[in-house]
Amino acid sequence: MRAGIDLGGTKIQAIVADEEHHVLAATRQPTPTGGGAQGIVAALAAAVRDAADHAGVKTEELAGVGLGSPGDVDDHAGTIANASNLTGFAEPVAVAAQLRQDLGLEQVRIGNDVSVATQAEFELGAGRPYQSLLGVFWGTGVGGGVILDGREWHGRGGAGEIGHMVVKLNGKQCPCGRYGCMEAYAGRRAMEAEARERHEKGEKTDLFKIMHERGRDRLTAGIWHRAARHGDKLALQLIERAEEAIAAAAASAVNLLDVEAVILGGGMGTRFGEDARARLEKAMLPHLFNDDRPPALLLAELGDLGGALGAALLVDDKAAVT
Ligand SMILES: [Zn+2]
What we know:
It is a single chain. The protein has about 325 residues and is of the alpha/beta class. The chain has helices at about 35-55, 95-105, 115-125, 185, 190-200, 205-215, 220-230, 235-255, 265-285, 305-315; strands at about 1-5, 10-15, 25-30, 65-70, 70-75, 80, 110, 135-140, 140-150, 150, 260-265, 295-300. The protein is built from ten helices and twelve strands. α3 packs across α10 and α8 (about 235-255) packs across α9 (about 265-285). The model has no long low-confidence stretch (mean pLDDT about 95). The structure holds zinc ion (ZN). Zinc ion binds near residues 164, 176, 181 and 183.
């Protein structure tokens, strides 16, 4: 058995899975914002203990723990740095060493969150029939993963940044600071900034009313979905624009790599589900050079647990204690 953790800016999801990758227990808790890096690492250890507890196993019986994290992940050094959504993670934090000590486990592996989610879809989810694919994770930002000839392509360590493919020259400024990136139109954070600006200028929308009703401080995927279902004009416009941008970037990537499948996941992708998949399929077509044989466009199958399952895959179970 192994544990997997998906560390996000808002939540920590932990699972315990058996050798066949069946999830025996899953737990979810908010990412602490008060205690700095130490608080987050302590919460990661607690999440593993909690999931192990629910699965009815002792933590020391686990073969190891895999962690999927945003930011610059160095599995060899066991550190995470530059994770702007996590407090205290600007400088490298020695997460693996601390988890090893806290949990009494030898094997703690760290991977990039989008990379492990792509790997999970490839090995266990919608990507199983294919040897090449592009994972597109539409959430707060838009992350990407590339599998070529059955192996993930990391480039020099920075591959897969589909959110920062340029879809418009001299376009909108992206949260990354550059201009015209796909994420500047499609990332949930960028969409929220645009909605706020237009609302303040007098455009009508229920987005922020729904946000207050739900006691939230940001426009979650659920809020966008609800507003769209009610025919909110601004929400529908920004969602359409987001999907156009994703379609242009994904189709451009397909023109370059000719992968067999594109898999759509992430908080927004999962929430809009089949509707978004069908609209993207149509929106990609005009941009595809080989439009007589478009790639399969599929929804991520593992949903919310994909990140944690992919993280658990990092653990080498042959090194398991017997
Ligand atoms: Zn960018």
